Automatic annotation (TrEMBL):
Cofactor(s), by name: thiamine diphosphate
UniProt KW keywords: Oxidoreductase, Pyruvate, Thiamine pyrophosphate
InterPro entries hit by this protein: DH_E1 (IPR001017), PDH_E1_Alpha_Subunit (IPR050642), THDP-binding (IPR029061)
Signal sequence range: none
GO function term, MF aspect, one: pyruvate dehydrogenase (acetyl-transferring) activity
Keyword Protease: no
An individual GO BP term: pyruvate decarboxylation to acetyl-CoA
A Pfam cross-reference name: E1_dh
Name of the protein: Pyruvate dehydrogenase E1 component alpha subunit
Dehydrogenase E1 component domain mapped to chain residues: 18-315
Superkingdom of this protein's organism: Bacteria
Length: 327
């Protein structure tokens, strides 16, 4: 029996709740950012939810994840507190990083979230380090490095994949190919037809998966993570899909064809495809899912209200959290 076929109703509803939470969080940020109340840059993950959730359902708090500048979805799926994330994005003291990180630097080590990162491809070495520690300590933990099609051309990603193979580290490299990097099509910027084809150069399996299909992602990542935990070494998984919003909030997306995003929403949306499949299989009902939708909306409304009312960091907070105090 396949990994995904073993999912029961409770796990399926949890997967839907996580994907819906990411979608509602990002759609709301799209609206709120336009008010001018949110500082810094914001990069939204809407449309890509199946990748984060399909991966994280196989992980626990002892497993480490390094994400990208587009990291909200990964953080939510890894279990980082949604209210704390919203406060962080608003730059408030109650944020998960006390308002010092903002959208692009959310981290929560208690959940194994090493953090979002504004440096393209920087998660590779971080995850190799975490995976090496897990291997040496024999914790059974794995490291997952998410990176985009733009980062797939960065030397540090190649170096990290090579190191992971040489040392047989429990690492999964997840290339989230949303087709555009920043504003350039990956069909132009990536020399190979598939990022996953590069895996053979580093002696690891390369897998391509439909990123609009939660079950396909869940199956592929389940196999890769199980292999890593069992000492089989790293895997490169390429998840192909597309984002709904621009590279950053304010991006006019003039590089995309007219109607392209709406067509994706209408025909390939991962939440719609998930609902169609589980309802048809009688694993859940539409009423079950609508109930989750209502609870998620209430959560996001509360998160925004609390964030706006929360205090800002003070001048006295400036030099806190700079150094780590070791016992």
């Amino acid at each position: 029996m396949s990994v995904s076929a073993q999912l029961g109703k409770d796990k399926l509803l949890e997967a839907y709740r996580m994907m819906r939470t990411i979608r509602e969080f990002e759609e709301r940020l799209h609206v709120e950012f336009a008010t001018g109340e949110i500082p810094g840059f914001v990069h939204l993950y809407a449309g890509e939810e199946a990748s984060a959730v399909g991966t994280m359902l196989h992980l626990n708090d002892a497993d480490y994840v390094a994400t990208t500048h587009r990291g909200h979805g990964h953080c939510i799926a890894k279990g980082v507190d949604v209210r704390g994330m919203m406060a962080e994005i608003y730059g408030r003291k109650t944020g998960v990083c006390h308002g010092k990180g903002g959208s692009m630097h959310i981290a929560d080590l208690s959940k194994g979230m090493l953090g979002a990162n504004g440096i393209v491809g920087a998660g590779g070495p971080l995850v190799c380090g975490a995976a090496l520690a897990a291997k040496q300590k024999k914790t059974g933990g794995v490291g997952v490095c998410f990176f985009g099609d733009g980062a797939s051309n960065q030397g540090v990603i190649f170096e990290s994949m090579n190191l992971a193979s040489v040392w047989r580290l429990p690492v999964i490299f997840v290339a989230e190919n949303n087709g555009y990097a920043e504003a350039t099509s990956s069909t132009y910027s990536v020399a190979t037809d598939n990022i996953a084809d590069r895996a053979s150069g580093f002696g690891m399996p390369g897998v391509i998966v439909d990123g609009f299909d939660f079950f396909a992602v869940h199956e592929a990542l389940g196999e890769a993570i199980e292999r890593a935990r069992g000492g089989g070494g790293p895997t490169l998984v390429e998840v192909k899909f597309s984002r709904y919003f621009g590279h950053f909030e304010g991006d006019a997306q003039t590089y995309r064809a007219p109607g392209e995003v709406q067509k994706l929403r209408d025909e390939k949306d991962c939440l719609k495809r998930f609902e169609e499949r589980v309802v048809r299989a009688e694993m859940a009902t539409s009423d079950d899912l609508r109930g989750i939708d209502a609870k998620v909306k209430t959560l996001i409304d509360a998160a925004v209200s609390e964030a706006k009312a929360a205090p800002m960091p003070t001048a006295e907070d400036l030099l806190t959290d700079v150094y780590v105090s070791y016992p």
